[in-house]
Design brief:
By secondary structure, the protein is an all-alpha fold. The protein is 66% helix and 0% strand. It has helices at residues 2-11, 14-46, 57-61, 64-88, 91-117, 119-128, 130-137, 143-156, 219-222, 231-241, 243-278. Helix 4 (64-88) packs across helix 5, helix 5 crosses helix 6 (119-128) and helix 10 crosses helix 11. The longest helix is centred in the C-terminal third of the chain and has 36 residues, at 243-278. The protein is elongated and about 80 Å long.
Length: 279
């Protein structure tokens, strides 16, 4: 019994074990909070409308509350495995945790390399893919999505998604210019596309500031009142002009994952070393 205690103290570092535990405990709480926020948002959005119809992967991504819950659930499950594996010194859980982090890291690296080596192809996939169209089509169907798109257009001074810019909104049944469209928003764009969406007198948002903008005689005329370029182009320009910030964020995320993998691998080696002494 004394030998077993001595081996435990010699080979398993309490610092490594509890550093990994508390590191994952933080992300476990964060993941749980994100799931709770997503769940609350989902119930608020669909409590009266019923469950959303999801017919494709693209449609899944336009439901913001579902995306939030899925993301939070992934963080919650992975960090819970890390917590329990470290606390119980469970080889199976620790190996699964390490392998999952490795897969995520490789996937992130592959996506980043593809985006930087083939930027045009990467951007084209976003522009012509079904996701960009679904974001426009579902704008009025999901309040959470609407808030995200409005925030995106306001922050990046853009309108629409693809190279068509503000003309993208013709794909939405409430904003298209067809004669069958009886909506008062016919041929309009959302207020978040406007250069000055606030009423001068009251300071409140003027939701009519984008009305009839799709009927403008030219892009130049429309650009006097609204932002004409698409958001993918605007975000691309932002990344190009803020490469240091983007690289810094990516570096921090990568270092966090590498640190977690290092702790996990160290603890695995210590547990295996201890087990080898008992045999």
């Amino acid at each position: 019994m004394l030998n077993m205690i001595r081996y435990s103290e010699d080979y398993i570092s309490s610092y490594t074990k509890y550093s990994l535990f508390f590191f994952n405990l933080i992300f476990w709480f964060v993941g749980g909070a994100v799931v709770a926020i997503g769940g609350w948002s989902f119930l608020e959005e669909y409590n009266f409308k019923g469950l959303p119809q999801v017919n494709s992967a693209f449609e899944l991504f336009v439901h913001v509350s579902i995306v939030i819950m899925v993301f939070g659930g992934i963080v919650f499950i992975i960090s819970f495995g890390g917590c329990l594996g470290a606390l119980r010194e469970n080889l199976c859980l620790l190996k699964c945790y390490s392998f999952t982090l490795l897969l995520l890291f490789i996937g992130e690296m592959a996506l980043t390399v593809f985006a930087f080596v083939f930027p045009n192809k990467f951007v084209d996939l976003l522009k012509v893919g079904g996701l960009s169209k679904e974001l426009i089509v579902k704008y009025r169907d999901d309040a959470n999505l609407q808030n995200v798109i409005d925030a995106l257009q306001t922050e990046f001074l853009c309108c629409g998604i693809s190279d068509e810019g503000y003309k993208d909104w013709s794909k939405n049944i409430y904003f298209n210019c067809s004669t069958q469209n009886l909506s008062p928003e016919r041929c309009a764009v959302p207020y978040s596309c406007c250069r000055n969406p606030h009423n001068i007198e009251s300071g409140l948002i003027n939701i009519m500031c984008g009305y009839q903008m799709q009927n403008a005689s030219s892009v130049t005329n429309a650009a006097e009142f609204i932002f004409a370029r698409g958001c993918i182009e605007a975000i691309q320009d932002y990344i190009v002009h803020n490469l240091h910030l983007v690289a810094g964020i990516f570096l921090v995320v990568s270092l966090i994952q590498l640190f977690a993998m290092y702790l996990c691998k160290s603890l695995l080696a210590q547990i295996n070393a201890q087990i080898s002494q008992w045999r």
